[in-house]
Amino acid sequence: MATYVISDIHGQYDMLMDLLYKISFSDKDTLYILGDIIDRGPHPIKTMRKLMEMPNVICLLGNHEYMALRCLEFLMNEITEKTMADLDGKKLNNLVLWMRNGCSTTIKEFRELCREDQIDIIEYIKDFLIYEEVSVAGKDYLLVHAGFGNYRPDKDLEEYSLNELVWDRTNYDIQYYQNKYIVTGHTPTQIIKGNSKPGFIYRNKGNIAIDCGAFVPGGRLAALCLDSGEEFYSYTNKAASGI
Q1: Strand pairing class (222-225; 231-233)
Q2: Separation CA 105–CA 101 (nearest Å)
Q3: What is the pLDDT of residues 20-64, one digit of tens each?
Q4: Which pLDDT score, from 0 to 100, does residue 129 have?
Q5: Distance of alpha carbon 53 from alpha carbon 34, whole angstroms
Q6: Do residues 143 and 183 make contact, with C-beta atoms less than 8 angstroms apart?
Q7: DSSP 3-state assignment of 111?
Q8: 209 CB-contact burial (10 Å; exposed 0-12 / middle 13-18 / buried 19+)
Q9: Rounded mean pLDDT, 64-86
Q10: 156-183 burial string, b = 16+ CB within 10 Å, else e?
Q11: Cα(66)–Cα(87) distance, rounded to whole angstroms?
C-alpha cells in the first residue's frame, strides 16, 4: 500500500505502462497525476482513458488540460457556417495557444471518439483537482502542477489564481514552506538551472521536480514514492520532438 506521484505524461502511453509495471502498481496503491496527461506525445486520449479506468488514480489539472477544456466542446461541433461564425476572437486565441503547445495528437484521438466518450473525457477533466495536500509516512506534501506565480510568504493557497498554479513555474531556489515538501511537474528537469542530473527527479530547498521530459529525446517518465522517497523511471525516450 503506497502513494506515488507522476507528472507530465504527455501522451506517452507506453512509457506510463512501463512505469506502472516497474512500481508494481496495484489496486491497494494510490497514484497522483500532476497534470499534462495530454498533448505532444502519440496517445494522449488513450492515456487519459486508461487513467479513467483506474479508481485509485487522482488527477490534478495541468496547463495542457486547462487549454483543452477551453477548446474541446467547440471542437465537438460539426464545422458549419454557424459554428465558424461563433468562433470569436477569444475562442480563436484559445485554440491558437493550444495549437502552439502540441495539441494535434489530442485533437486527432478525441475526434475519433463517439460523442458520449467525448463528453466523458471533458467531464473527467473538469473534476481534476487544482492542488492537493497529503501526509504520507510522517511527511507533509503539497502537490501542484506548476508552481506559485506572484509568490508571497503570507499568500494563502486559496489566493493563487488558476494561471499562477498551472502556468507559472516554480523557483527551485526558494524554500516555500519550512515543514512541507512541494512536488511539481510542468518544468522539465532538463531546463532547471544548476541541475547536475538533467532528466531525473530534482530536489532543492523542499522542492521536488518530477517532470523528467518524457516527450523529449533522452527524457523519461518518473514516479516518486512518497512513502519511501524512492524514484522510478520508465525507459528513455529515443525519438521525440524538442521542448
Answers
A1: antiparallel
A2: 11
A3: 999 999 999 999 999 999 999 999 999 999 999 999 999 999 999
A4: 98
A5: 17
A6: yes
A7: helix
A8: buried
A9: 79
A10: eeeebeeebbbbbebebeeebeeeebbb
A11: 19
Neighbours of 86 (CB within 10 A): 11
Task: Pick the closest to residue 241 from 221, 218, 222, 223 (CA basis).
Answer: 218
Type of residue at 214: A
Phi-psi region of 194 (alpha: psi -120 to 50; beta: other; left: phi over 0): left
- Strands 30-33 and 3-6 turn out to be parallel
What superfamily in CATH does domain 3-65+130-233 come from? Metallo-dependent phosphatases (3.60.21.10)
Distances (CA, A) of 11 to 5, 66, 159, 206: 17, 16, 31, 29
**Phi and psi (nearest 5°) for 39?**
75, 160
Instruction: Sketch the domain layout of the chain as residue ranges.
Output: 3-65+130-233
